[in-house]
Each structure stands twice: as structure tokens, then as C-alpha cells.
Amino acid sequence: MTLSLPDLGWSAFFLGQCDADALAHVSPCRLTGIHRDRVTALGAMGPRTLTVPPPQTTGDLAVGDWVLADAESRVTRCLARQSLLSRRAAGREARVQLIAANVDALFVTSSCSADFNPARIERYLALAHEAGAFPVVVLTRADLVPDPESYRRRAEALARNLTVLTVDAHDPADRAQLAAWCPKGRTGALVGSSGAGKTTLLNGLTGEDAATAPIRDDDARGRHTTTGRALRPIPGAGLLIDTPGMRELGLHDAAEAIDAVFDDIAGLAAGCRFADCRHSGEPGCAVAAAVDGGTLDPDRLARWQKLRREDARTSESLAEARRRDRGFGRMVKRALRDADRRKGR
Ligand SMILES: Nc1nc2c(ncn2[C@@H]2O[C@H](COP(=O)(O)OP(=O)(O)OP(=O)(O)O)[C@@H](O)[C@H]2O)c(=O)[nH]1
Ligand SMILES: [Mg+2]
Fold first, then answer.
1. What is the Å distance from ligand 1's center to 214 Cα?
2. 180 lies in which domain range?
3. Arithmetic mean of pLDDT, 32-57
């Protein structure tokens, strides 16, 4: 199946970044997979494998990116992104890891089981907001519980006007609800913890045969079956990205996005007596009053405060790392200039 560029998500936003002459020598391709030394892509002529010449590396690219490739199948340029999902990379070093680019709908996938975790869903909602993707919560294993509606209600309480789908990932009619959120030319991405059913949904919607595996009996956790990110077309609809289950989703530079998800609390905070109220015992605190009055769940308040603190810490250490990198870059440039001068160039 060869798709047209618009079916792959090409639009005026990307076309506007290319001058007409350039397009005579290079062709636009949408990245479907990232590997250490090459990337895979779909273009107007079908699937391609591309190399990434220095100074760019495949680590600078994300599944879903639009790139320009020359006749020798080299990536010459990555086009500016309409949206970008990223997280703080796991580990101690402050580094950002790209998850996916140019995503329209973020399918926040969780199970109607012990895996259902409001704090985790709120994190993913903030990620969607930060990236500029539309969040859709997908609750799988609705076929295994007597009351999927109770899970839906709990999810709906996590943000205003939130779209929540309850599905049996093996049921084609249930899966079709997801396809409706990524029609032709649009891109959805499945995120969520391991075992939530992301690949089961992708396989069913795209006709792929990617590996899935049963969850563990003891704690309902998955086995980290999917290891790479992949973009695949849904026949008759848009495109879908599968991602590996994430153990940690560290947000960064997401203060506004967090407040958008928790806009009930952010709205209350505007009514506190002190503009810099920390909602931890200050007089005239409207947030504490709402907790005392029973209109705000204290657990939700604690989750908001934890996310805000963590985001502030991460954003600061990333800013510091960027400053260090810039300083190092300047030092290298100075050293090269001095060396050139000494050689009389
Ligand atoms: N009964 C039922 N089983 C499901 C449902 N969704 C997923 N499963 C099963 O759950 C197991 C895990 O599904 P996967 O699709 O591998 O989960 P995943 O989210 O891709 O997991 P990772 O790749 O590890 O991140 C598989 O055995 C699926 O058949 C569902 O809605 N109902
Ligand atoms: Mg998977």
C-alpha cells in the first residue's frame, strides 16, 4: 500500500518550510522507526531506509518527524515540528528524550485493573498538553471487569472535558473508536505503562503482527514487550505510533501544562490571600479551604504539588545542562579559533 503525502500527514505547515527548488532534489519522508545508524520512513514512493550524515544523529530525530531525503537516501534536513512529545530521559543525567513528533491525538492507555493509576494518567495528560496533542484516555480490559463505567468516571474526574474510551482491545468495534480520533492525514500515538494493551490496539487497527505478551499474574504488570517506537498506517484512516511502556514519565518545562490539567486547583489558588501562597498552611489559603470543605480531594492536591515540584527541579537541571553545553561549545570554538590564529590561517 503506497500512501500519498497528505495521507502521511504532509500539510501546508511542512510545505511552507521547503523552497520549490529544493524539492526538485530532495523528497519529503515521514519517519516510521529510529535505529542507531539509520532510520526507516514512508515517502510518496513507499518505504525507505535513510542514513543520517553528521553532525545530525539519529538521536536528534523522532518517529513521526518529516525529513527531506536526497537521491542517495541521506537525510538532509528535519522539518520543524508541529508537536513534539518528549520526557526527561531515565537515569541521573539531565537529558531530554524524544518520544514522537507531529502527533495530533495522544492515546493515554491504561487498564481497568490494578494498573489504573490517576497520578500516571495526569502525567500523560500534562505531556499531551505540553506537546500540543489532543488527549484521549483509553481504558482497556473493559471486558474483564463488571463495572468499566466506574473506571471511566474516575478517569473523567482527572481533567475538565476529558474524552475517555473504555475498550476491549480485541474487539474491532471498540478499536474503531480510536480510529475516529485519527482520520486520514492525522496521527495518533499510544502511550502508557507496559501491558496496557498498546500493541494489541495497534495490531488490530493496522493489521501489523507486532509482538504482544500476557501481563504478570501477580501484579498485573506488563513485561516491556515493545522495545522501539514505530509509526504504522491504519487502512482507511490515519497513522498510529506505538511506544514501549514507560517505567517513568519525567515531565520537563511543563508548569503551564500541569496547571492546565489541574485547572480546578490553579483556579482556586488565584483566590488565595497571598499571591505566592504555597498551600501548606498559610492564612487565607483558598485551596486548603476547598480541601476542608470537601470540594477538593487532598490526594489530587498532593499529586499536583508533587508534579509541580518535580517539574521545577527537572527544568532547572536541564537549563543548567544546556548552559553548560553552550559554555563548552563556546570554549571549543575559541580553542579552534586560537589554533587557527597560531597557524596563521
Ligand atoms: N482481555 C483483554 N486483554 C487485553 C486487552 N488489551 C490487552 N490485552 C492483553 O494484555 C496483554 C498485553 O498487551 P500488549 O498489547 O502487549 O501491551 P503493551 O501495552 O503493548 O505492552 P508493552 O509493549 O510491554 O508496553 C496481551 O496479552 C493482550 O492480549 C483487553 O482490552 N482485553
Ligand atoms: Mg507493546
1. 6
2. 84-242
3. 95
